[in-house]
């Protein structure tokens, strides 16, 4: 049993509608469906089923060949994205947690997709600095929420013009609009950095951005022009 993440139980839309989206849309089959079921039964955080369905709709339209993921966890979303593009692409995914790395490797082996996935072990900021500019078609960022702000400059740099960055869990169970003084101290930095991140990207002239209320908020960013986001590298204040 994993430590409870209370945000998993705070819907950002009507709870009945959320449950409908999770149960009445097409379900996964086979081994990847088994992984999703196991994670949900054991309270292991993975993308919720409405996001699964959305990715299965979106990625075949985008047809990305090079996919980057920041935050592998048990490897479910990496496997899902690879399946969504019918094994025609390559996923590079970054994870620092040894337990998650072990589970992800086992799942990749079970699914027989090891040749199509590169798992980078260690700190995301260190790996992101090493990735070649303009090399990636699609990025999925689902890691430490307080780090989204500081990870963004390198994510933007490695993304091709016209590429898409999807950022998960930006609404914090609907608490993103709360006054910071009302937010518990343990998540106050996350609240502040997410708001700072949204303030930059939602109306930037080099980005086309859409925030959709699936899961705990999925932010979609298309890179339209090059821009300088180095000011966001001031990370830990």
From TrEMBL:
Any Pfam family: Methyltransf_3
UniProt-listed GO biological process terms: tRNA methylation
Residues noted as binding S-adenosyl-L-methionine in the record, renumbered to the chain: 47, 77, 95, 142
InterPro entries named among the record's database cross-references: Cation-dep_OMT, SAM-dependent_MTases_sf, SAM_O-MeTrfase, TrmR_methyltr
Gene Ontology molecular-function annotations: O-methyltransferase activity; S-adenosylmethionine-dependent methyltransferase activity; tRNA (uridine) methyltransferase activity
Catalytic activity: 5-hydroxyuridine(34) in tRNA + S-adenosyl-L-methionine = 5-methoxyuridine(34) in tRNA + S-adenosyl-L-homocysteine + H(+)
Enzyme class: transferase
Key words of the record: Methyltransferase, S-adenosyl-L-methionine, Transferase, tRNA processing
SUPFAM superfamilies: S-adenosyl-L-methionine-dependent methyltransferases
Keyword Transferase: yes
Gene3D superfamilies: Vaccinia Virus protein VP39 (3.40.50.150)
Keyword Transferase: yes
EC number of the protein: 2.1.1.-
Assembly behavior: Homodimer.
Similarity comment: Belongs to the class I-like SAM-binding methyltransferase superfamily. Cation-dependent O-methyltransferase family.
HAMAP family: TrmR_methyltr (MF_02217)
Described purpose of this protein according to its UniProt entry: Catalyzes the methylation of 5-hydroxyuridine (ho5U) to form 5-methoxyuridine (mo5U) at position 34 in tRNAs.
Protein name per the record: tRNA 5-hydroxyuridine methyltransferase
Organism for this UniProt entry: Alkalibacterium olivapovliticus
């Amino acid at each position: 049993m994993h430590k409870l993440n209370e945000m998993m139980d705070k819907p950002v839309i009507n709870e009945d509608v959320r449950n409908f989206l999770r149960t009445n849309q097409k379900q996964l089959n086979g081994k990847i469906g088994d992984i999703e079921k196991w994670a949900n039964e054991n309270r292991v955080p993975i993308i919720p089923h409405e996001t699964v369905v959305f990715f299965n709709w979106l990625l075949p339209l985008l047809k990305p060949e090079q996919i980057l993921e920041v935050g592998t966890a048990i490897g479910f979303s990496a496997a899902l994205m690879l399946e969504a593009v019918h094994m025609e692409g390559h996923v590079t995914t970054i994870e620092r947690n040894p337990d998650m790395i072990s589970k992800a490797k086992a799942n990749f082996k079970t699914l027989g997709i090891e040749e199509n996935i590169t798992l980078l072990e260690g700190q995301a900021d260190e790996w992101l600095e090493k990735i070649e500019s303009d090399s990636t078609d699609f990025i999925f960022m689902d890691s430490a929420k307080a780090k989204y702000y500081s990870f963004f400059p390198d994510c933007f740099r490695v993304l091709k013009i016209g590429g898409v960055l999807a950022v998960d869990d930006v609404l914090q169970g609907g608490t993103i609009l709360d006054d910071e003084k009302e937010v518990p101290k343990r998540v106050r930095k996350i609240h502040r950095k997410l708001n700072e991140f949204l303030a930059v990207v939602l109306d930037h002239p080099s980005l086309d951005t859409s925030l959709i209320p699936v899961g705990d908020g999925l932010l979609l960013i298309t890179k339209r022009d090059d821009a300088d986001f180095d000011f966001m590298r001031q990370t830990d204040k």
